[in-house]
């Protein structure tokens, strides 16, 4: 049979443990100050694309660009600041970043989770083609490609090709 002393000691230990646990839980559940900024998940400011709209007015309603701008991803995030391009009235200087067809999918998958997207019902039928680069994300998302080009550059070498 246990002595009285041992019983008291174990009871004391037990309550010390539960007090420590309660403090731990309280610290975890400490209600957040209403004015305190939420960590990590803070909403990004919408991107301002107005500098590009001076010439690319048709993109201010293009759903792909609009959606991304709303979440803080502007033209410059994907195409670079492109100062020389935007300042060139002759339109011979290309933007900083262009995407040949075989670079499109990889560019999207830098930000979007490949494994998650591959499982989407709308994606599974085309996922092999996406992996093989014979189908591109921009075939379905947005109307980001121009139906008609007035100026063209080689998207790989950046060489000015023609203007019409
Ligand atoms: C999230 C990334 C992203 C954003 C934001 C973005 N673009 Fe693009 N852009 C691309 C990609 C990728 C391509 C290549 C698409 C393709 O060839 O299918 C492209 C292609 C283009 C083209 C060439 C289209 C063609 O027919 O060859 C133009 C012009 C363009 N973007 C302008 C803009 C402008 C202006 C903005 C802002 C209003 C913008 N982009 C925002 C990724 C982006
Ligand atoms: C710089 C990071 C970045 C790049 C590059 C990028 N996206 Fe996004 N995209 C986002 C963010 C941020 C959102 C808004 C939050 C969300 O819905 O995930 C978004 C949203 C989207 C949505 C809307 C999702 C919904 O729930 O309605 C689609 C579709 C999309 N992106 C497709 C693309 C495609 C296609 C490309 C490549 C041409 C691309 N994205 C490139 C960051 C990016
Ligand atoms: C064959 C057409 C097609 C292709 C190609 C395609 N998608 Fe989609 N995608 C869809 C459809 C349809 C949906 C569901 C409706 C919607 O949200 O627009 C979708 C949904 C999404 C969403 C929203 C996911 C969510 O959680 O709701 C994102 C982000 C996205 N696609 C990105 C991409 C990226 C990145 C690629 C290329 C790697 C791609 N898609 C290729 C048709 C396509
Ligand atoms: C002074 C006018 C002007 C401004 C400002 C301007 N662009 Fe352009 N940009 C053009 C012209 C012209 C083309 C060729 C479009 C065509 O073929 O119709 C072009 C084409 C592009 C292309 C397609 C390149 C390709 O072939 O893949 C991208 C991307 C682009 N611009 C991005 C931008 C971005 C980003 C901004 C803002 C930082 C911007 N532009 C500002 C005139 C301009």
Number of helices: 9
Secondary structure tally: strands: 2
Uncertain segments are 16-32
Bound molecules: heme C
- Proportion of beta-strand residues: under 5%
Helix residue percentage: 40-55%
Q: SSE order in H/E notation? A: HHHHHHHHHEE
Q: Give the overall pLDDT as a whole number.
A: 85
Structural class: mainly alpha
Straight-line distance between termini = 101 Å
Outline type: globular
Largest sheet: 2 strands, antiparallel
Query: For the largest beta sheet, what order do the strands appear in spatially?
Result: 1-2
Cα-atom radius of gyration: 28 Å
Task: Tell me about this structure.
The protein has 164 residues and is mainly α. The chain has a domain at 50-163. The chain has helices at 4-29, 50-53, 63-70, 75-79, 83-86, 101-108, 114-118, 127-131, 137-140; strands at 151-153, 160-163. Strands 1-2 form a two-stranded antiparallel ribbon. Strand 1 and strand 2 form a beta hairpin. The radius of gyration is 28 Å and the shape is globular. Residues 16-32 have low confidence and may be disordered. Residues 67-68, 71, 73, 77-78, 104, 107-108, 110-112, 137-138, 141 line the site of one heme C.
């Amino acid at each position: 049979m246990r002595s009285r002393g041992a019983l008291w000691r174990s009871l004391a230990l037990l309550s010390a443990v539960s007090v420590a646990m309660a403090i731990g839980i309280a610290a975890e559940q400490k209600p957040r100050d209403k004015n305190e900024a939420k960590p990590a998940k803070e909403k990004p400011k919408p991107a301002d694309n107005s500098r590009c709209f001076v010439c690319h007015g048709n993109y201010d309603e293009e759903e792909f660009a609009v959606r991304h701008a709303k979440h803080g991803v502007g033209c410059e995030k994907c195409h670079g600041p492109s100062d020389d391009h935007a300042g060139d009235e002759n339109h011979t200087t290309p933007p900083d970043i262009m995407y040949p067809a075989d670079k499109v999918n990889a560019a999207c998958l830098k930000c979007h989770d490949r494994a998650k997207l591959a499982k989407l019902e709308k994606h599974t039928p085309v996922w092999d083609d996406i992996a093989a680069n014979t189908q591109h994300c921009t075939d379905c998302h947005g109307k980001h490609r121009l139906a008609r080009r007035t100026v063209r550059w080689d998207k790989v070498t950046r060489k000015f090709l023609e203007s019409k």
